[in-house]
Design goal:
The complex is a heterodimer. Chain A is an all-alpha fold. Chain A contains 17 helices and no strands. Chain A folds into 2 domains: 87 residues, no CATH class; 171 residues, Hypothetical protein af1432 (Orthogonal Bundle), CATH 1.10.3210. Chain B has 2 domains: 54 residues, Molybdopterin biosynthesis moea protein, domain 2, CATH 3.90.105.10; 41 residues. Classes of the chains: A mainly alpha, B alpha+beta.
Chain lengths: 284, 112
């Protein structure tokens, strides 16, 4: 059994066909780990990517930061912080990979990111931006399984439907591994920081997280909330159980949970009735 | 609460969120949450270029919309595998109440 899993790991992690991260992220990563590099150097790298530059400037000029008319990338990077810029670069490239593959999963990921942001803000946690990115990436393993194990996908889907399984159980039954583990492998091969790879690898098993248990718990809960809400399609229709360790780590209670649901649904209304607007715009 | 395009708005609907100039939260507020819409107000909003607004309940029905009882049944099904988890049971209760409130008086109405 173990052999099958490691064979699969080889197939899945075959770097030649793995989606790669744009060079700008690798360069930013290596620069930001080097104490001697300056913001100006990083800004020069970012400036080479016009889409990313536009996004950064838009964010820096957004009212939530309270500054207006930030017109240079280096000022924007000082204002936003290098980590925010890095997660912005990461999430925009993940969007491209996901959008092409599955709209339902993309919605689920986007919804989880939204929920993770709401939970993190409600609990006044640090590094909201990183937590949101972790939410966005938490199911990246499903994209890889979809790409690399296309032949086994019908079997996985059949098992979910006929045996009423969670997608992770169906994946383990067919592949001997699941999307969380695959996501963990992938984040290693992408050299993502632990604060992203732990939530990706352990969002169904918070107990295994070591250094970033709070972030992992937030992503776990965000996944549960968005599935409870029925938004998007993550592969199976069932709400996963809220884990005791996550409940304790976030010091949750019923009133807090209630506020989070209200905030999340309030946000989702904007997205949910989009089809109504589209239909009407077409009719006018 | 429901987000609807302005041309589907009708008198007697109640605003669930403030309306801002240019639909931008940094714009000037035009009309407050809780306001009951009237025909003259709607035409004034049209003149001001408002595109969409949020109203209480679920007054506009379209194909594919599900009534409250259907939505509740789907909710129960989503939770069916994890009801023995006490936190999930709490969450189900929260969602049940939320759906019922969000759909408002029209909640029980079936699609026409």
């Amino acid at each position: 059994m173990d052999e099958r899993r490691s064979d699969l790991k080889k197939i899945i992690m075959d770097t030649k066909t793995l989606p790669t991260l744009p060079g700008v992220i690798n360069k930013l990563n290596s620069l930001s780990n080097d104490d001697k590099s300056s913001v100006q150097e990083m800004a020069r790298i970012v400036s080479a990517d016009q889409v990313l530059s536009a996004r950064i400037l838009r964010l820096a000029n957004s009212p939530s930061y309270g500054f207006y008319r930030v017109s240079t990338i280096s000022n924007a990077m000082i204002l936003l912080g290098v980590n925010v810029v890095k997660s912005l670069a990461l999430s925009s490239s993940i969007f491209e990979i996901m959008e092409k593959n599955s709209v339902g999963l993309w919605e689920h990921s986007l919804g989880t990111a939204t929920a993770a942001g709401i939970i993190a803000r409600k609990l006044a946690l640090p590094e909201v931006e990183e937590i949101t990115t972790a939410g966005l990436l938490h199911d990246i393993g499903k994209v890889i399984i979809g790409l690399k194990c296309a032949e086994q996908m019908p079997e996985i889907r059949r098992k979910i439907k006929l045996d009423d399984l969670f997608i992770s159980d169906a994946e383990r039954a067919v592949l001997d591994t699941d999307h969380a583990e695959v996501g963990g492998w992938l984040s290693k091969s992408w050299f993502l920081p632990d604060k992203l790879s732990e939530p990706i690898a352990f969002h169904h098993n918070v107990n295994s997280s070591e250094d970033h248990r709070i972030k992992t718990s937030v992503v776990h809960l965000a996944d549960v909330l968005i599935k409870a809400s029925g938004f998007g399609d993550s592969g199976d229709p069932y709400v996963p159980p809220i884990q005791q360790v996550a409940w304790d780590a976030l010091k949750l209670n019923e009133a807090l949970l209630h506020e989070m649901v209200v905030d999340l649904e309030d946000k989702l209304v904007e997205v949910k009735n989009f089809s109504l607007e589209l239909a009407n715009a077409a009719a006018v | 609460m429901q987000k609807i395009p302005l041309n589907l708005a009708a008198a007697e609907m109640v605003l669930a969120r403030d309306i801002f100039k240019n639909d931008s939260p940094t714009g000037m507020p035009i009309c407050g949450k809780g306001t009951v819409l009237s025909d003259s107000l709607i035409s004034r909003l049209q003149q001001m270029g408002v595109q969409s607004l949020y109203v209480e309940g679920h007054p506009v029905w379209q194909e594919g919309d599900r009534c409250l009882s259907e939505q509740l049944a789907e909710l129960e099904k989503r939770f069916s595998k994890t009801l023995d988890n006490r936190y999930n049971a709490v969450l189900l209760d929260i969602y049940r109440n939320h759906l019922t409130t969000a759909m408002g008086d029209n909640g029980g109405r079936t699609e026409e």
